[in-house]
Amino acid sequence: MSAPAPDLPDVRARARAAFLGLALGDALGATVEFMTPGEIRAAHGVHRDITGGGWLRLRRGQVTDDTEMSLWLARAMDAADGWELRGAADALAGWLRSGPMDAGNTVRRGLRRYLVEGTLQGPESAGDAGNGAAMRMVPIALATLGDEALLRRVAIEQAWITHHHPLSDTACVHVGALVQLACLAASKAQLRRASEGFAAEHPAFAFEPYRGLATGYVVDTLQTVLHFFHTTRGFEECLVAVVNQGGDADTTGAIAGAIAGAFYGEEALPRRWVRALAPPLVAELGALAERMVALSPLGRGVV
Predict the structure, then answer these.
(1) Structural domain of residue 89, as residue ranges?
(2) Of 81, 183, 194, 170, which Cα lies nearest the Cα of 142?
(3) Would you say 61 and 27 are in contact if contact means Cβ atoms under 8 Å apart?
(4) Does a structural domain hold residue 133?
(5) Is 3 among the domain residues?
(6) What is the domain count for the chain?
(7) In a domain, 1, yes or no
(8) Are 144 and 154 in contact (CB under 8 A)?
(9) In angstroms, rounded to a whole number, what is the distance separating the alpha carbons of residues 94 and 80?
(10) Phi, psi torsion values for 277, nearest 5 degrees
(11) Distance of CA 23 to the CA centre of its chain
(12) Cα–Cα–Cα angle for 68, 256, 264, nearest 5°?
């Protein structure tokens, strides 16, 4: 017996929640980025509201490079009617030229290489095992829904623009896979099995027992996201637990927000958090999420 066809309205709603969840986690976590859990407790008790501030002195509801790069990629795919590697690299380079408030060193180095050399990937490098490619996976996951091989290819192509390292590659693919499973209404047990299989195949990412590290190293990032997504019972509970680990909290929050948003859905997103974001940003995130689904093999009806 074949599997039932996905409920496309539900897929689109979960896609919107994934892209909005990314931005919510980014904005929530940015306030406590680079702080330790002890410093967060001393300054905030439990950090659970979008307030701005932090080392970047953000306005309340302002997002950072996690959301910005994801948006620029989604806009490029929207304009090109699908994935086009050169167009994606041009978009990310355009984002860098726009003068963002923050850009990670590896991202900046990779995009400067592209601007100078025009090369779509750098050489494999031990210094490229950061989380800067994994954090921009939401539009890639949505635009490749329905084709696992396409997800893997595009995830790695976009990663190699700035991050050429096997750990980054595998992290990008697994983040995309979890977003896709959640958008297709998989159960929590199914997502857990997927993560356990991922960790068995790539033991560096084993997330139980949790080691308590939430740095920009992509292994620490994924361990934090996976541990708290799989051990909490709601969107807000998951994100609050993740960002209160401090470290690279905007990125751990963004990735957790994308996965948890897709899984728990729009109704689970705290209204007070959504109201903190600029309404044009919320509208664009929703529209681009739906557009990415429409561009996907699933949305085009080819699967």
Answers:
(1) 8-300
(2) 183
(3) yes
(4) yes
(5) no
(6) 1
(7) no
(8) yes
(9) 16
(10) -80, 155
(11) 9
(12) 110
**Amino acid found at 14:** R
For 240-251, the pLDDT digits (tens) are: 999 999 999 999
Residue type, 117: E
Length of the chain: 303
In a domain, 287, yes or no: yes
Q: Find the mean pLDDT for residues 259-275.
A: 98
132: domain CATH number is 1.10.4080.10
Q: Which residues does 122 contact at the CB level (< 8 Å), separation at least 6?
A: 110, 113, 128, 160, 162, 164
Amino acid at 130: G
In this predicted model, what pLDDT tens digit does every residue of 101-116 receive, in sequence order? Answer: 999 999 999 999 999 9
Provide the whole-model pTM.
0.97
